[in-house]
Amino acid sequence: EERQCCTTVMQSAQVTRAQVGDSVLLPCNYKTNPLPETTSVFWRDSNSSVVLDIIKKKPDHKTQNEKYKGRVFSFQNVYNEGNFSILMKDVRLTDSSSYECLVLEVNHLQILKLTVSVGYKTLHQRVCSDDDVHITCNTSCVRSSWRQQPVSSNTAPTKTDI
């Protein structure tokens, strides 16, 4: 008897957006009851690096790529419900990638795309001296220098673009 194998693929990749430093949930759900105790799930990024392996419904952090160690976790208490989502903490720009979640026993493949951007933070700084204050930003910020003017009730620091 010949066994047919088929793979269920989510047709369009779900896009998740995050900013550097955020925590992000990457969902992977397969609803069929009951899932065998031998169910294994393999999370991979676009370079085929191991994001997380779940072997026989147990997370295996030993096989995890170094760049994900200590940052990617799953929720073992919901595996029996078919939820193999992962939480990625302290997201980095280099985490922008496509991710695949393969539920092996049922040949279910879910593809996700994570887009990471640099967030903008507002800086509030009160200057109480006659010294210049220099603020340097990396990545996509505009480099600026702030100069304090003599203190009076109607003056504010002025911005000089470098």
UniProtKB/TrEMBL annotation:
Any single Gene Ontology cellular-component annotation: external side of plasma membrane
Annotated PROSITE patterns: IG_LIKE (PS50835)
Keywords recorded for this protein, A-Z: Cell membrane, Disulfide bond, Glycoprotein, Immunoglobulin domain, Membrane, Receptor, Signal, Transmembrane, Transmembrane helix
Membrane topology qualifier: Single-pass type I membrane protein
Subcellular location as annotated: Cell membrane
Main location, first listed in the record: membrane
Gene Ontology annotations of biological process type: cell surface receptor signaling pathway; cellular response to lipopolysaccharide; immune response; negative regulation of T cell proliferation; positive regulation of T cell proliferation; T cell costimulation
Domain Ig-like: 7-117
Record-linked SUPFAM superfamilies: Immunoglobulin (SSF48726)
Electron transport as UniProt keyword: no
Pfam families attached to this UniProt entry: V-set
Name of this protein: Ig-like domain-containing protein
